[in-house]
Write a structure and sequence with these properties.
3-stranded mixed beta sheet; single chain; 9 strands; elongated; 2 helices; 19% strand; 4-stranded antiparallel beta sheet; 181 residues; alpha+beta
Length: 181
């Protein structure tokens, strides 16, 4: 026995339990239910719910993608400010880095500071240091926007210089140039 608006179809593979009796799954048709709002062309309301949920998930995914894309473009840093008071941490411009195009970059006995960047030393580089130990560096991208370089914990591939002041020279990497760094 089916309730109003439910068409029992013996050929329908899905069955459901109603008050202890097994009956055919409800199938809404335009003749018996007067057409269900939100149902698809077959009259199945679950298909329209699935589509509704899929559209919502797609909308949220697009919003997240736009937000992450906007965050990537707004990630430019600021150049270190020139202090208006006496301090030993004065920013200075430098090009004194070994880059992968220099043979000394690959020499493990060369303890000079290294820079791994898509720009090499061709764009502006500003660093702060104290008593000859470099702390932070920024490098301009192709548009002149500053980006703070990532300082690696060791001057890889150098194996010397760890006994120098401040633990020796460092290896700096342009943000996002090496995946995971």
């Amino acid at each position: 026995m089916a309730g109003p608006g439910i068409v029992t179809d013996n050929n329908h593979p899905t069955q459901w339990r109603k008050r202890g009796r097994i009956a055919a799954a409800p199938v809404y048709s335009s003749e018996t239910a007067g057409g269900r709002a939100g149902s698809d062309s077959n009259g199945d309301p679950m298909t329209s719910v699935s589509r509704y949920v899929a559209r919502g998930v797609l909308a949220v995914g697009c919003a997240v993608a736009v937000a992450l894309g906007a965050a990537g473009t707004a990630a430019a840093d600021e150049w270190p400010p020139m202090p208006d008071y006496p301090t030993p941490f004065v920013p200075f411009e430098t090009k004194n880095f070994l880059t992968p195009t220099d043979p000394g970059y690959w020499n493990p006995l060369d303890a000079r500071e290294r820079l791994t960047s898509p720009f090499g030393t061709s764009t502006r580089i500003v660093c702060t240091a104290f008593h000859g130990v470099t702390y932070d560096c920024w490098q301009a991208d192709e548009h002149g926007n500053p980006h703070k370089l990532v300082k690696l914990p060791a001057n890889i591939p150098s194996v010397t210089g760890s006994s120098m002041p401040g633990g020796g020279n460092s290896h700096y990497v342009y943000p996002g140039f090496i995946p995971g760094i």
